[in-house]
Amino acid sequence: MTSSPVTIGLLGCGSVGGALVELIAERADAIADTTGLRLGIGSVAVRSAAKSRSGLSDDLLTTDARAVVNDPTIDVIVEVIGGIEPARELILEAMKNGKPVITANKELLANCGAELYGAAAAAGVDLLFEAAAAGAIPIVRPLRESLLGEDVRRIMGIVNGTTNYILTKMAEEGADYGEALGEAQRLGYAERDPTADVEGFDAGAKAAIMASLAFGARVVAGDVYHEGISEVSQADIAFAHRLGYEIKLLAIAEVFGTGTDREIGVRVHPSMVPADHPLAAVRDSYNAVFVEGAAAGQLMFYGRGAGGRPTASAVLGDLIDAALNLGQRSHRRVPGGGQPAKIRPIDELESAYYLNLEVDDSPGVLAEVAGVFGRHGVSIRSMEQEGLGREARLVFITHLARERDLQATVSELRSLGVVTGVRSLMRVIGE
Ligand code: NDP
Ligand code: HSE
C-alpha cells in the first residue's frame, strides 16, 4: 500500500506523550501496511528543554508550543500537556489553522467542551478524545457513535486508575494510603496534582464528558457532586469486607424522567460494592464502565484506565482516525453537547447507605436511634451490634433513601446524647 506521510505536532512529552513517541516508532510499519499512513513526528513541545527524552532527537524539541500549532508543515496536533491553559488556547489555535486535534485532557473538556466542540465544528476538523474518559478503554467512541440511537439511562463505573490502585493496595496488602499514592505517581497514573485523583475531580470530569455524550445534554465539571477517597480508612475497608463489600470510587450518571421534566444526576463518591458485583473485581489501575440502555440493556467496558502506554494506545487510535479523515477531507461528527442539562442536585438523589455509629451501651438506646431513622423516613435494611465495653458499635445498612433525609438523620443522630460518634457514612450499591 502506498504510504501517505502525516506529520504530527506533539504538545507535551510526559507519561502519555513519551509513551506515544515509543508506540509510533514501534507500530509505524504495521500502521503503514494496514492503513497506508506513514506517521512521523514533526515537532514536540515541552516545558523544560533540559530533560533528556529517549527516542527523540533534540532538533524535534521546542519550548514554543504556539510555533507548533502554527507550523504549516504539521498536519495533526496531539495535546497531552493537561490542565486548562495553555492547552485550551493551543487547541483553539490549531483548529483555526485547520488542524485536527487529539487530546487526552478531561479537565479541559469537562470545563470548556462546548467552546471546543463549537470551534471544531466551525473549522470542520476532528476533535477526538478517546483517552479522556477511561484511559485505554474505548468508551467515548461507543457513546459518540455506536449508542447514538440508544436511550441511555445510566452510566456507572470506576474511572480513576490512581484511586482504584490505592484502594486495591489498601484492601489487599494493608498498604498505607500515602505510600500507595506515591507508587501510583511513580507508575505514571496520577495527575500532575494528585488531589484531582484522590478528591474525585478527575473522575468527576470523566463522568461529565460521558454524561454529555450519553444523554445529549451539556454536563460540565461543576455539575458533578464529588467526594474522594482521602477519608477512607483501613477500618472502613475491614467493616466493608466483614459485611461482604469492597470499597470503590464510583462515578454514576443517571437520567430521571423524560421530555421537559428530564433531569440528570452525576456524582462521584466512595461506595460499598457487593463482593459478587463485577465492579468489585476491578483491581489495580483497571477501570470499568457499565452503560445501561433502554434497548441495549447492560454493556460493560473494562481495561487499563491509566498509565502512559495504555493511554497512548487510545491516543494513537484517534490519531490514525483523524489522519485518515484528513486524507478524505472529512471529519467525525462533532458532539453538539446540546442544551445545558437540568441537574438533579445530590440532596434529591437516592442511595442505600452504610452508617457506623458508636453509642452508649444502655437500655433504650437502640430504640432511640432507630426512632431517628424512622422520623426521617429512612428504612433500615440490616443492623449489627458489637460491644465496646461501656459503649457499643451499631452498623446500619439502609434501604434506598433520599440523600437529604439521610443527612437529616445523621445530623439528628449527632445531636443525641447517647451517640458518642458517627464514625463512618458511605453509599451502598446494589439495591
Ligand atoms: P505529564 O505531567 O507526565 O506530562 C505533561 C507534559 O506536558 C510534560 O512533557 C511537560 O513538559 C509538558 N508541558 C507542561 N506544560 C507545558 C507547556 N506550557 N508547553 C509545552 N509543554 C508543556 O502528564 P501526563 O502525560 O500524565 O498527562 C497528559 C494528559 O493526559 C493530561 O491531560 C492527563 O489528564 C491525560 N491523561 C493522563 C493519563 C495517565 O495515565 N497519565 C491517562 C489519561 C489521560 P516537561 O516534560 O518539560 O515537564
Ligand atoms: N490520573 C488519571 C487516573 C489518569 O488515575 O485515572 C487517567 O485518566
Structural class, by secondary structure, is alpha/beta
How much strand? 25-35%
Find the count of extended strands (DSSP E, 2+ residues): 17
From the N-terminal CA to the C-terminal CA, the straight-line distance is: 55 Å
Bound molecules: NADPH dihydro-nicotinamide-adenine-dinucleotide phosphate, L-homoserine
Mean pLDDT: 96
Q: Can you summarize the main beta sheet?
A: 11 strands, mixed
Do you know the CATH architecture of the largest domain?
2-Layer Sandwich
CATH fold assignment of the largest domain? Dihydrodipicolinate Reductase, domain 2
Work out the count of structural domains: 3
C-alpha Rg (nearest Å): 24 Å
Task: Estimate the helix proportion, in percent.
Answer: 25-40%
Please tell me what the overall shape is. Answer: elongated
Task: Describe this protein's structure.
The protein has 431 residues and is of the alpha/beta class. It folds into three domains: 153 residues, NAD(P)-binding Rossmann-like Domain (Rossmann fold); 159 residues, 2-Layer Sandwich (Dihydrodipicolinate Reductase, domain 2), CATH 3.30.360.10; 83 residues, 2-Layer Sandwich (Alpha-Beta Plaits), CATH 3.30.70. Helices cover 37% and strands 27% of the residues. The chain is built from 14 helices and 17 strands. The strands form two sheets. Strands 7, 8, 9, 10, 11, 12, 13, 14, 15, 16 and 17 form an eleven-stranded mixed beta sheet that branches. A six-stranded parallel beta sheet has the order 3-2-1-4-5-6, sandwiched between helices. Helix 3 runs parallel beside helix 4, helix 4 packs parallel to helix 10 and helix 13 packs antiparallel against helix 14. It is elongated and about 85 Å long. The relative contact order is 0.13. The mean pLDDT is 96. NADPH dihydro-nicotinamide-adenine-dinucleotide phosphate binds next to helix 1 and helix 12.
